[in-house]
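User: Run a structure prediction on this.
Assistant: Running it now.
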Amino acid sequence: MAPALRAESAFSPLDEQLGLLGGGLTPRGEETLVRLSSWMPYECAREFLQEVLGIRVSKASARRATVQTGEAGLLVWDAEVDRLVQDTPHARASAEKQVMSADGAMVHLVGGEWAEVKTLALGEVTRTAAGEIRTAHLSYCSRLCDAATFANVTLLHTHRRGLDQASEVCAVQDGAEWLQGLVDYHRADAVRILDFAHAAEYINEIGQLVLAAGGRLPTRWLQGVLHRLKQQGPTRVLRHVVWLATRYPSVLMQEKLAYLQKREAHMQYPSYQESGWPIGSGSVESANKLVVEARLKGAGMRWERQNVNRMLVLRNACCNRQWQQTWDTALAQRQAARTHVRYTHSQQRLQHACWVLALWRMRLYRLTHPSASGAPTTTHPSSKYSWRKPFLRPLPPSTPGAKL
């Protein structure tokens, strides 16, 4: 029996019409698998899919489908950012008062390295009937990148929320320098507020330094200082802290004091509350837990650096309630990439076939068109030459007197 021919890669014309991606799952089944994997570990997602829908997949398949979808989502996001930078389209109407807060959370990478994932949270500022200040309709954008890249990446997020069209914007966050650069990039005119809990932490540390140096403070000293800071502002509080730093000097004490003095303009909490602004960055603190840590900081998890942002774009889609839009655009991107790969392979096979055809045509031409010189001529040796005894040569004519 002749050996079977090797199977070649092929595709069905129905693949594109049915939206198949080559993973052996229907579009709905793969979407469900990727969405589950965005909320829970791959193994849990695989088991859940099998128990609920009866679809059997491997952990590797769940990971592969999720990574490919996340990569496609990132490509779509980056393309939209580039379009915004070039065209600068007009943003849609938005809420009059918005708040922006940014912060970082650490993620464990393969190899033991820890890296900071930055998150920008945007929301609308409202007041309840009782006059309480609330932040509503929160949305998030998270990436593992440097500060300059993060400012550019979040441009699409701020554009969708209409941050540049809002009448008033405040930025509530800690005092990190990269956060100030982020505010300058998106809304340089925003009201900058130092997170009250962050300021309270520094004041508490100053009190601990005083006690460590042998000083004495009232039992409810911290509560009294924070109440004065919130109700009266930073002037008297900073004056009191300067007195403590003078009486109990140390290098660390001076660092804490310098940090607060540099940000005095961002601690005008009475005026902020009167204007209806929040003074706490709880929105982004909860975003770190909801968006990043809930999926990327499980027990024993280690992430490859290139896969962190692929997962984060899916996490943002889930937490922002924009899953369907993200899935549709990522699916279109994956299908377009698959079509491009198939077209490239088809062109390579066509080029190879053309070369083979040209080679056979050349060989056929040589067989059917002999050379113009005709058959090669054969040179016959002289009749006196013996093939059998080539060493015999005709003797020269005999001379008189020659002896035999």
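DSSP finds 15 helices and five strands in the chain.
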